[in-house]
Amino acid sequence: MSAKRLGVGVLGAHAWAEKAHLPGYAAYDRARLVAICDVLPERAMALAEQFGVQRVYSDPAEFIADPEVELVDVCTPTDTHLPLSLAAIAAGKHVLSEKPLARDARDAFAAAAAASQAGVRTKLGFTFRYSPAVRQLKRWIDDGTLGEIFHVHGFEQNSQFLDPDFPIRQVEPGADWNSLMPSSIVGYGSHLLDLMRWCAGEFSSVAATMRNFIPERVVRGHEGRRRIGIEDGTVATVEFESGAHGVLQTSYIAVGNYPGVELRVYGSKGAAVARLISEFGVAETLHFATPDAVEFVKVDLPASSLPPGTTLGTPWPELYYRNLVRHFVDEILDGSPPECTFLDGARSQELVNAIVLASAERRWVDLPLYAAAE
Predict the structure, then answer these.
(1) What is the Cα–Cα distance from 106 to 357, expressed in whole angstroms?
(2) Is the Cβ–Cβ distance between 219 and 276 less than 8 Å?
(3) Average of per-residue pLDDT across 256-270
(4) pLDDT in the model for residue 3
(5) Calpha distance 325→307 (Å, rounded)
(6) Over the stretch 54-102, which tens digit does the pLDDT of each residue have?
(7) Read out DSSP for 115-128?
(8) How confident is the model over 327-371, as pLDDT tens digits?
(9) CB 233 within 8 Å of CB 256
(10) Residue 159 backbone phi and psi in degrees, to 5
(11) Which tens digits make up the pLDDT trace of 94-116?
């Protein structure tokens, strides 16, 4: 391993930066936090003081131009992810972006191509790939422990927005509030789609139904409840190129605790369930069964499977992001194989786009949707 430390700058000083991104870098000795940027300087200064960041910017262009910022972390509102990531790529910087990279997968594919041409590394903030339980489940798939994969199920059971007075965030500018607006499938579903694709390979076709269950809500930046056609829940049926089947349910209103992700994989030799739900003082659980012992048994992962300095009692944003940051910094410094790149983000967004189309037109939609995905 190289002794070099990677200079990191974080764009955005919001709550998610404070809970996940910044603690991840601060905890890893191969990363060096050198700058933070936010349109509100006082917000950036507060987090800079908290995490020992050297410089504060309010202008993203000046921030990206800082020669000590080698990795740009884009942790900003959704519609800024793409332009800020493209600016960083054009400046020759490695980029980590929160998801979605773009609302249209074609734009995300173009960003992935730009990064490849520029010779920079990218990573999407698919937090749950970096759960110790999920990574163990993936190892069981790769080493044949689960055998041939038959079914992959992804569920989101997080009732964060069940209360209509809990503000909905980041409504797309210019959106028609009277039409069904994809929301849970974007915010939560993109994670599940990435995990399902990681486990069973590329999708070949999807069918789906989307629905608004709570027609009036409080929307951040507006007073009182407003009628708005937010998509509160989606159910999709999936066919994989491998022949495996999948089921996805993403929901703003299914009762359950945050983050609410459950991944189930069923194969010819065994089955595993990774439940990423903060319950009873732990962030996640993992269960395993075989054809000869069909009762699911809890698997206790060794401490070595967790990021240094964490336990399953560590708040999940920090637990998973410490792992994500550690992997990305090592990929850059050591030249190790990339994982969870902008191309993965583009393919996940293509699946979101396909599910939205399948629901709107009440039909199966085949993949890939776009030539760029080939």
Answers:
(1) 15
(2) no
(3) 96
(4) 78
(5) 10
(6) 899 999 999 999 999 999 999 999 899 999 999 999 999 999 999 999 9
(7) HHHHT--EEE--GG
(8) 999 999 999 999 999 999 999 999 999 999 999 999 999 999 987
(9) no
(10) -90, 30
(11) 999 999 999 999 999 999 999 99
Phi-psi region of 119 (alpha: psi -120 to 50; beta: other; left: phi over 0): left
Residue 330, number of CB atoms within 10 A of its CB: 17
Strand partners, 211: 233
Residues constituting the chain:
374
The candidate with the shortest Cα–Cα distance to 302, out of 293, 311, 313, is 311
User: What pLDDT, on a 0 to 100 scale, did the predictor assign at position 374?
Assistant: 41
Element (DSSP H or E) covering residue 265: strand 259-267
Q: Can you tell me the distance from the alpha carbon of 195 to that of 211, in angstroms, rounded to the nearest whole number? A: 23
Residue 248 in 3-state DSSP? strand
Beta-bridge mates of residue 6: 31
Alpha-carbon gap, residue 266 to 67, rounded angstroms: 48
Q: What is the pLDDT of residue 373?
A: 45
DSSP secondary structure letter of residue 80: G
Rounded Cα distance, 236 and 250, in Å: 9
Tokens of 287: 């269960």
